[in-house]
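[Automated response] Your request has been received and processed.

Submitted sequence:
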Amino acid sequence: MTKTTGNQGRNQQPSALENFKPLLVDVAVPLGAYYLLKDAFGMSTFAALAWSSVVPAARTVWSLVRERTANAFALLILTVNVVGLALSFVSGDPRLMLAKDGAVSSTIAIGILVSVVLGRPMMTEGMKPFLVKGDAAKESAWQRLVSGGAAGSADFRRKERAFSVVWGVALLAECVARVVGAYTVPVDTMVWLGGVLMVGVMVLTFMVSGAVAVKPMERILADEAKKSGENPEAAGAARSIPVAA
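Generated structure:
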């Protein structure tokens, strides 16, 4: 009987795939739909943006109706698409169209930085699966750390905020670089340089955020998970603590 209860408890722990679901639905699906509709089906930029906005729009409305809270990722992607739709009305200036990608990056960056100020770091949803890896002990340790119920909570939350700040600042810098390049670099050069710039920023940001936040958080999480293994009663009690989003 005890064994069955233990298995049920483990089965209730979210898997890595379940942790990834919000990220996949709110980010990957809309972005994938945009490029599929635009490149594979030959839709215009306006039409592709409009149709790819359906999922984040539905997620935002559903969150407001059912949970009475705004889904951060869905709302951000919807905002990005609305900005893109607005800028799609402007035609005839290739440099302005190149600068449009910078406007998209800035919208995402501002959304991330605002989420940090509000105490709900947006990038956490994308980072958590890589740290927890569907492990029940780490999931429990994560809950205690973010809710303030562990000794390392303050340091853990600082690193959590730092992760989002690094990404927000990096995307904002990319925005500035894209806009400056759009009006100073030859158009033909900027078309391919924009892609190179994006890849470069992503790689650099992964490295910096990993060193500044991910690795320290991984160590804190492992230490806390180890403590929960040594003290199962404390781990069980922690599951009743409300989790800070």
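Summary generated for your ticket: The chain is about 80% helix and 0% strand. The radius of gyration is 21 Å.
If you did not submit this request, please reply to this message.
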